[in-house]
Structure formats: C-alpha cells, structure tokens
Design goal:
Layout lengths: L6 H5 L3 E4 L7 E10 L2 E10 L4 E12 L4 E5 L8 E7 L2 E6 L2 E6 L4
Antiparallel strand pairs: 1-2, 1-8, 2-3, 3-4, 4-5, 5-6, 6-7, 7-8
Length: 107
C-alpha cells in the first residue's frame, strides 16, 4: 500500500556510507530514493564472511515514524528497522549495529 512519505524521510533521500562495517558486511553505499511514491534503499555491499563482493540489492521501506522505517520485501532483512540517527553530529542512519553517514556525491 502506497502512502505519503513523511517529510523527514524525504529530506534523507541521499547517499550514505558505512562508518563501522566489518568482514560480515561492508556497505559501500546505501542510497535512499523515492520511486513511484515508495521509499527505497538501494545498496552496494560486500561480505567476506558470506563470500560476495560488490553485490547490489534493493529493499522497499515503510516509514512508521519520523525516525524509523521498516524494511519490507528484503528477504532475510524483512521486518528489520532502519533508524535515522546522528553520526558524529551529522545526519545518518543506523541498521543492525552499523552506522551510515550521509555523504555528498557529485552529480
């Protein structure tokens, strides 16, 4: 069901990079974007533990508050929560113990 995306989440439509990744998961880039009125997390990541490099994936997000969005249709991540947080005083995201900082990407 499509619903209005809260303004705080619309303002977070940017590119993020992991600050504390490890061999289990290394998020090279997470881009929040909106497609057809749905908030999407577009990921580029690697996992040396699980044996994949530079994998790409997408998951739809359901914003349940101004600071939390539930991952839907994300396979094993389905039902997990992506939180909006400050990372060293800057806009960021938090997922499953990993901190992601917003970065500026040249267009």
């Amino acid at each position: 069901v499509k619903k209005a995306i809260p303004r705080p989440w619309q303002a977070r439509v940017r590119v993020y990079r992991c600050e504390n990744c490890d061999a289990t998961i290394d998020v090279h880039q997470l881009e929040l974007l909106v497609e057809d009125r749905v908030l999407i997390a577009d990921l580029k990541l690697s996992s040396h533990v699980n044996g994949y490099e530079n994998a790409q994936g997408r998951a739809a997000l359901d914003p349940v508050s101004d600071d939390e969005a539930v991952i839907i249709g994300g396979g094993s991540s389905d039902g997990s929560v992506l939180q909006a947080v400050a990372v060293d005083g800057n806009a960021g995201l938090y997922y499953s113990g990993y901190r992601l900082r917003r970065i500026d990407v040249p267009h």
